[in-house]
Every structure is written in structure tokens, then in C-alpha cells.
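tool_call: predict_structure(chain=1)
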Amino acid sequence: LASLAETAPAPLSGLFGKAADRLLQECGPSLFESWEQAIALSWNQTALKQPEREIFLRLGAVLGTSDRDDQRKHLRLAINQLLAEEKVAAEEFKTYGSMWRSLGLLSGILVVILMY
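tool_result:
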């Protein structure tokens, strides 16, 4: 987690760093508790939404509990789930992005008409 904190871009570097710091404390919490606390403290600094938070929490619940191959499987699953959420966000952007652009244009026209 500490090496991820060094290489990840902000604000995710803060999330990984907080989890690593909590793990390094003497008599510190478990990995999942550290991960959960770091997410609770850092999540509002990210642009991620609730579905992504759930994915991160599920990943934290299984990290460190099984062998390397199983960990890879869980990481791949989390990556696939995050990619699916990215597709949903892109679709929402297409839908609502054009709506907001149109609304902005129409508002501008309304202001010009009212001023004229």
C-alpha cells in the first residue's frame, strides 16, 4: 500500500497512504479495518461514486486472506467492475453532457432575447 501511495495519482495516493499508515501502527487494525477507515476518511476527496466505493470495500475485504492466485482473481474482478462503471459514466456523460450544453445554449439565447 505504501508503494502504491508513492506511485498513484492524488487523491488515490492519499487513500493508499492512510491505509498503509494505519497498518504500520503498533497493535493497528486489520487490513480490512485499515482499508475501510482510509476509504471513510479519503472518499470525499475523490470524484468516485457509491458503486465504486462498494467495489473498493469488497476488494479490501478479501485482500490478504488467500493465496496469490486468488488475490489476482479478486483484483481482476475489481478492475472489470470498475471498467463497467466507467462505461456507465461515459454513457451518462453522453446523455447529460449534451443536455447541459443545449440548456446552456438556450439560456444564452434567452438572455440575449431579454436584453434586446
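agent: Residues 11 and 45 are 6 Å apart (CA to CA). Proceeding to next step.
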